[in-house]
Structures are given as structure tokens and as C-alpha cells.
Amino acid sequence: MAFVVAVAIEIYLLRQGGNPAALFPVGLAMGLALYHAAFGFTAAYRNAIVKRDITGVCAQLIMLGVAMVLFAPVLANGEIFGHAVSGAVAPVSVSMALGALVFGIGMQMAGGCGSGTLFTVGGGNIRMGVVLLFFCIGGFWGSLDLHLWQQLPGIGAVSLGRELGWGWALALQLALLIAIYRALKSLGGSHGARLWPEPGFRLGNLIQGPWPLLLSALLLAFFNWLTLVIAGHPWSVTWAFTLWAAKGLVLVGWDPMTSGFWTGGFQERALNRSVFMDVTSVMNFGIIIGAFLAASLAGKMAPSRRIPVRSLVAAVLGGLMLGYGARLGYGCNIGAFFSGTASTSLHGWVWIASAVAGNIIGVKVRPFFHLQN
Length: 373
Known about the structure:
Blueprint: H1 2-16, H2 19-36, H3 42-50, H4 55-77, E1 79-80, E2 83-84, E3 91-93, H5 94-110, H6 114-122, H7 126-149, E4 154-157, H8 160-164, H9 166-186, H10 205-208, H11 213-231, H12 238-251, H13 265-272, H14 279-298, H15 309-328, H16 333-342, H17 346-365
Antiparallel strand pairs: 1-2, 3-4
Helix pairs in contact: 1-2, 1-14, 2-6, 2-11, 2-14, 3-17, 4-9, 4-11, 4-16, 5-15, 5-17, 6-7, 6-14, 7-12, 7-15, 16-17
């Protein structure tokens, strides 16, 4: 079923023309890589905080380092294959940091992040479907309030590549990743699982899984670079959630002209076009379907419909916090952190510092909702 749906969508996109047709398969591949390695940010941070298991965090550090090396020459040149490219560079501000903090708390309450929500929904997790719904609602809510939050102090967008030169910026960021790893080790961090392939890993594992974290980390770095090359900008996730909610509300009578965020520019154009013309939406569809395909191949499509009340409340609140925080923070763990730091944007580093603080708070809140740490 997943394969048939994927083929049908790709045929439709090819008939429409443009970047979505090229990026939908990238999304499918991302879904496979995320699901087969269970490559999430939320559990990785929780394991590091509670168990001092830094395996997942190390996989992220490797992914970031590879992406930085791939991004630097393309962004330094400003174009590739005859078309312009730009990094995920956003303003550094109090509201951005607060948004990342709220997002971090929401990660632990919801049990997922931007990419994590997509691949777990694709894998058949009903609870994460609730998270996704309220993720969309929270993102739309944040879009209506964004102009108020943007009045708080900030220093504007800062690209380390432009300020220091791309060579120096790359060296600085790679050194920072190494320093983070050494700091985690000195604080007692250890590896609870292997980054490398387990003994007995065979070609059949590529189809049915599981995949080693290192394989998915390298693939996700490459897929983000491929997105940059094709779309002209790096991978992002949460903008699409905000757009989906806005489109749904238009259908029930909401007037976009009542919001400055949705009046004029990119947002208004996206709202007036088919969702299949939005690159982020198409890639998100690809991730969900790719994860569904991966779960089917692994024989793990057995969703549980029983959700405890407190867990359901946490899903609703967590989803709202994820959406609202992502809108204030100019993205999530993908658009702000992964793509931001790979683009040498200072806001990516500020985002992750704030989000980690939020995750620490979220871990402490989880037991109230009967969520295990």
C-alpha cells in the first residue's frame, strides 16, 4: 500500500513539474533512515540526561559534523548548478530562545520532535498522530502571536561563515562539536549501544532493519545536503505543520487577511497554492510514507489504540508546545538546530542550548503524566 501511494504521488508531482518531484523521494529515503535506526532527538537527550547514555547524542554530533563539511563549499559559493542557495540563518533573540525552551519541554511531554513525530506517525503510532494534530495547531497559534514576541530584544541574524570566513567558521564549529563530546565524556557519559553495525549486520537489514545509528546519521547529513542542492535551502519540517493548520482553518471560515503573518509574501503564496507545491510539505509526506514502508517491511505495523488519559493529555500539551515553540524559535531540531548549525547560523547554537534546558525540565515533568524516563 505504501509503495503504491508513493508511486502515485510521485507521478502526480512529475506532472506538476518543479522541485517537489525531486524532493519527494528524498523524503521517502529520510523516512526509511529515521525509522530503521529509530533516529530520534527526544530519546537521545532523555537517555543522556537520565542514564548518561550519550550514544544518540554522539550520532547527532557526527551527523552535524558531516553536514557542516558538505554545506560549507556550497554556501560559500552561493550557488550550485546555476541556481542560488542559502542557508538556514535566522535572528538570534529572546523570543527565539524562549521558543526553543518551550519546544524542548514539549519534546519530552510529547515523546517526539519535528522529524521524530513524522516517522513515528508513519510507523503507526496513534498517540503521535494526536501530537501531530496539536503540533499543527500550536504552530498556527504561534504564527498569530509571532509579531508580539518579535518585539523582544535580539541581535538579528548572524552567519559565522560570513562574519569569520567559511574556513574559520567550519573549523570553529567542528572544534565545538569535539569539545561537546569531550565534555559529555568528562561528565560521565558512556555508550549504551554501538554506533557501528552490530555483529551479524547483513544486506537484509537494509530492507527490514534495524540500521546502525551511524549509517542513518551519515545518510541524513547527505540528504540534508541534497535538499540544499535541489531546493536551494536546507531541510526543514515545522513550517508545513503551520501551513496545514492554516489551510484547514481557511476551509472552516478563517480569514487570513486578519493576520499580518499570513498577508503578503511567501506565507500568503503558500496558503493560496496546492500543498503539493510546498517543498516542506511534500518532504514531510515522503517521510511519513517512507516510515510506513519501513515499518511494513519490518513487520511492525501493529498500532495500539489504547492511550492512557494522562499520556493523552501530555500528547495534546506537548504537541501545542512543540508547534508554538517551533514558530517562535524559527524551526525545530531540524530546521533550526541541524540545518541552522550546518549553515553556521548562530541561532542554531543558541537554539540547542535553550532546547536542552527545556528537555531537562521536560524530563522532570514526564512522571506526572505517567511517562517513563
